[in-house]
Design brief:
This protein is an alpha+beta fold. It has a single domain, classed as Cytidine Deaminase, domain 2 (3-Layer(aba) Sandwich). Strands 1, 2, 3, 4, 5 and 6 form a six-stranded mixed sheet that branches. A hairpin with a 5-residue loop joins β3 and β4. The protein binds zinc ion (ZN). Zinc ion binds next to α5.
Length: 142
């Protein structure tokens, strides 16, 4: 893919690399959402969505950040899974960059724009650089 930062390219490679394992663990067709955290050019951790069952961490997180939709439907979003892993391990601040990617069953990039709740939580944490794949498979950023 042209004109995307190296961390996005690397994230796409990793998502494709982990896809078969993620796919094998799922029972029915779903898309696969990965969120990668980068700091100073190093990938520090990644998260994955889990919409198979409601998740206690997702509920706690939703309450902490006042995310109404996720209090109602506390399924783990990739960004929430990621923030949960980073929490207490690294300083989450504006140096953290997020790459959010979704792969369909054919391993094509599709819409991974962070939802309102995750966007709000990220900005409350001071994370202001996010790249994500859009519905057409292109990379967007904010
Ligand atoms: Zn979300």
């Amino acid at each position: 893919m042209k004109n995307v930062p190296k961390i996005v390219d690397e994230s796409i490679k990793m998502a494709r690399c982990w896809f078969p394992e993620a796919y094998a663990r799922r029972k029915k067709y779903q898309t696969f959402h990965f969120a990668f955290a980068w700091k100073r050019g190093t990938m520090i951790d990644f998260g994955q969505n889990n919409i198979a069952q409601p998740h206690a961490a997702a509920l706690n997180f939703a309450r902490m950040f006042g995310i109404r939709d996720q209090i109602k439907y506390p399924y783990l979003h990739a960004e929430v899974d990621l923030i949960g892993k980073l929490w207490g391990n690294i300083v989450i601040d504006r140096k953290v960059k997020i790459v959010s990617l979704r792969l369909n069953v054919n391993e094509e990039l599709c819409n991974a724009k962070p939802c309102m709740g995750c966007s709000s939580a990220l900005s409350q944490l001071g994370v202001h650089r996010v790249w994500y794949s859009d519905a057409a498979g292109y990379i967007q950023s904010w």
